[in-house]
Amino acid sequence: MEALLTEDPQQVGPYKIVGRLGAGGMGQVFLGVSPTADRVAVKVIKSQLLDDTDFRERFALEVVNLKTVYGARVARFEGAGLDDEPPWLAVEYIEGPTLKRHVERSGTLDVTLAAMLGAQLADGLGKIHEAGVLHRDLKPQNILLGKDGPKVIDFGLAKVLLDPDHQVTEPGHWIGTLAYMSPEQVRAENDLDASTDVYALGATLAYAVTGRLLYPGPGGIVMAHRISDPVIQPDLTGAPPELVPLLGLMLAHEPTARPGVKVVHDQLIALAKASGQSVPAIRRRLIKATFDAPPPIVVPPELSDPRADPEDAGDRPDPATEPPKPKPAEVDVSWLADELRTAYARDAAF
């Protein structure tokens, strides 16, 4: 069993640690609070990985990539300590479950919500690719469903697209999560491009609407063989018929047969709008269906995000002894509404 920190650290870089958020293959993630009460997710690297120069380089590349990418659908970079022991990385704290956890606990998404989710994730991938970066590990576990929609996290396996000859792993080694890897990624080809992330997005959307993997059954070598065999097609049983044609293109065996991220985005938007609802309405419904705040982590009062000027605290009346203040008188503004209607009737461009 891999060793983790036996006790949560009290301080990492400039952040006070107030709770544990989870653990992954590279380390543990904690909730940290900055001196100005901003909350971040702090990844602290496992001690047994520190002597691995390959890992050190990969971790440094993750930091570089996070500094480069941006956008509403990508977790924001906050800071890092590459030379600290152990090294750490801080990103925007996103309250909410992963897509994988949501499907496991609450079930699959309908076609309209899945299409909106996919369009927003395509937005995120577009920003990532514009920055010259390939994610290489898009999957339900790396998508957080926050209070303003989904966000892509974890660039630990990302690769710089602008330098295709650069790699931090040896040829023949799998990089990514097998169930969501493209055939060329399974074959450990080095000249990967954006179509690899399109495949992973297709596999992720298929999971969101079916709750199953594309290649059910044994994992490991057996699954790798099935993914890399052009004769064996991914299993889309149970996927909404409206979504199957696009998923089939995204999951094409040959990278050149897959649509680009922009095409995927536009088709998913069109599919979502086919429900007759507006995009803002579908977004609100997606958030309502997927956002589930985790149990709160108790933050010491001195680190809490202030809601009012603390200097005024001593001037506040005690509700137990002070009578409530009278409510302000209501003002009739119906006349203003009448004037606006009249003005609009005169000039429709008003």
Automatic annotation (TrEMBL):
A Pfam family the protein falls into: Pkinase
Record keywords: ATP-binding, Kinase, Nucleotide-binding, Serine/threonine-protein kinase, Transferase
InterPro entries: Kinase-like_dom_sf, Prot_kinase_dom, Protein_kinase_ATP_BS, Ser/Thr_kinase_AS
Molecular-function GO terms, alphabetical: protein serine/threonine kinase activity
Residue span(s) of domain Protein kinase: 15-268
Alphabetical list of SMART domains matching this protein: S_TKc
Domain of life: Bacteria
Region (Disordered): 297-333
Identification of the protein by name: Serine/threonine protein kinase
Residue spans of biased composition, Basic and acidic residues class: 304-330
Keyword Signal on entry: no
Binding site for ATP: K43
Organism, as annotated: Actinoplanes flavus
